[in-house]
# Entry
Amino acid sequence: MTEAETAPERPDLIVAANRGPVSYHSDASGEPVVTRGAGGLVTVLSAMLRRHPGVWIAAAASDEEETLAAVAASLRVDLDGETFRVRYVAPEREAYNLFYNIAANPMLWFIQHYLWDLARHPDIRQNELDAWSKGYLPVNRLFGEAILDELGDDGAGRVVIVHDYHLYAVAPVVRAGAPRAFLQQFVHIPWAQSDYWRVLPRGIREQIFRSLLANDVVAFHTQHYVDSFLQGCVDVLDVAIDTHEKAVNVGDRTVWVRAYPVSIDPDVLESAVRSPRVAAAERELLERRREFLLVRVDRLDLSKNILRGFLAFDRFLELHPEFEGRITFLARLQPSREDVEEYVAYREHVLHLAAEINTRHGSADWLPIDLRLEDNFPATLAAYKHYDALMVNAIFDGMNLVAKEGALVNTRDGALILSENTGAFEEIGRFAVSVNPFDIEDQAAAIYRALTMPAAEKAGRAKAIRDVILGNSVEKWVAAQWRDIERKRALEAARE
Ligand code: G6P
# Structure
């Protein structure tokens, strides 16, 4: 399954992300296992590497991966019939802890999703400043050096795409060592407005914006985030932007700021749905199914607005007691970032609230909220297939692929309850039951409306959503980025 390489060829494409495409770890008996990495990033980056072969650089996240990082420059990994070349960087444990558990999460994640309770948090003290200078920056530098090592020269003709909020400071390292490489940063999460960036000390926020402008392209999922980033460049750095061309001028360079709404891979998803494990999960689900099934699928993250989703369900049951005993709210939540204090407290709060609502409305024979804290994709696919309504009520969300996956897999013309603050809303919001994620009454009404919508209307909306999703597959997402890369290269070559 894995083959070590010590002298790899020079790749045309280098992608870098904190997480890798696979995860090496040990099972309960200590046997080594390799599994597909969790999350949507794996699907979309593997689609990109399928079309433009190259190498994926990630941080070693287990003892096994640290060992692999030490013994080989990179590895060939074969998973589900696809081959990836993976290279691990292995930061010092303490540096990685500062980088991941303080600087990236919660600090940047909370800023970009507007999650700080500003009257109380965050307190920026020496610990947070150290997390930046002794964690975030050194880990970013390691990534930058690994990219330079892969490039091996000035980078002419090659493309480097760095993903997400963990790696904002990589581009300047690569630009300095390989000035002719094409650099793109894809930001998969929202871009907060300038006032909120001002939570960060001036030096740090300026460094983030300036580092991003070392790229050729800065990419987001929506036009709204593109505009927010451009305005941020003016407010934080006072640089000249071109709102018509969606570009920033930095010295003699032009940085394009672009939106490429990511999507899912319908073929991969449809073949996953046909697996025997999904069939087994469906049997289990259908045995317990009540007349109505409301589903949510999320990482257990504060941005996902799980508490208000439960409060809305509570209110819905209060307003519509005729649904008692006839509905289940299945909440499939994958534990996440469990070393971050805010996530530990949030998980407790979620468990407590679900129990309270179950006690208030439930009976010996009926559990209104069925809470499953696990990462089990076959069971998730079974839930997608059979929901009557899917709740996606995120506070803010870069895209939200659950909304797209669910709508594609569902077999009951189930309704989509969708927060107006998700990236997906720009594409499919008009066919969903839209909600303001802070308004509990609105969300309670949305649950009722989703469940009682006339069959023809439900079918029409479900089909319209599926059509939009099928019309913008992940393949198109890759192609749109490549078109711009080639256009920009051609423009620059013409100028030289
Ligand atoms: C978001 C981020 C991804 C991240 C994922 C899971 O979707 O954009 O970069 O990988 O959350 O978070 P984790 O902290 O588990 O990597």
About this structure: The mean pLDDT is 95. DSSP finds 18 helices and 19 strands in the chain. The CA atoms of residues 140 and 167 lie 6 Å apart.
